[in-house]
Amino acid sequence: MIGLIAGKSGDSLTDELHKRGYSVAIVCGKDNEPGVDKADTSLVADLSRHEEIYDFFSSHSICKVIFGTGHRLAFDLAEYLISKGFLVNIDVEKSSMAKDKWRFKKALNSINVNTPQAVIINSVNECERIETFGFPCVVKSVIDTVLPCKVDNVFELREAIAEVLKTKSQAFVEKYIDGNDCTVMVASDGYTVRNYGVTYYSKAKEYKLRGFNNAHSNRMTSKEERKVCEIAEKIVCQLQFKGLVRVDFIISDEVYVLELNSVIVTGYTGSAYPFFEKGGINVASLAIDTALSILNEK
To answer: What is the pTM of this model?
Structure first.
């Protein structure tokens, strides 16, 4: 039996573990969360209830837990379980760094990977800080408390920053790049690193993000694809990420890295799932194979 914390990915990951002969003990934040009806045993509990979750896993003699969700509370739980001697499939420090857009951008700069200019803003009165790159620009929350939006003037900028600050997150304002969206999935168990090619997916388009009316993801040449995949592998290798990660790009006259998802949503209803499936990639299967390899189960 193996433990699973998976959020929206609980259904597909439970199915993949069953295919490999594992019984699954799943922890779900809600009683209708994907996977709760598929797992062999389950606990419905908020992920902040560390001791209760620890007792649940211990009662089933579980010492290895797979995390298939990148929620902040999941990272806190992983850190707690590690302190109790559990083995998990994620590096909490690396995942936390990737989740913090400002820290990740600084890490990209440290390995000379191209990424749009950006600033951190703590007040609506700091709008002049974007003067180095101007309008249009993209407003995000540092730790994903609200969805990004594109703004074209000071009024929209102040409004978007205020929305972010209400969520107790710093605002992250980035230069807007008018280009072609795509993503690359990379698997690493700490020894072997492999990319799975370019997937033509635009988060801005699929989520209908405010202001991104022209978002698109169009096929590139083989040479362009190779360059993008090489950059994705470079990031994973040099920043030492483990697991199945997704690196998001936007391509204009140059290749820009936008962000890295250290834990991919692999559930059957995940927004990117059909795009990977169309490319012949079983993302849930790859996620489990990589996780099991990290946990020395293969």
So the answer is: 0.95
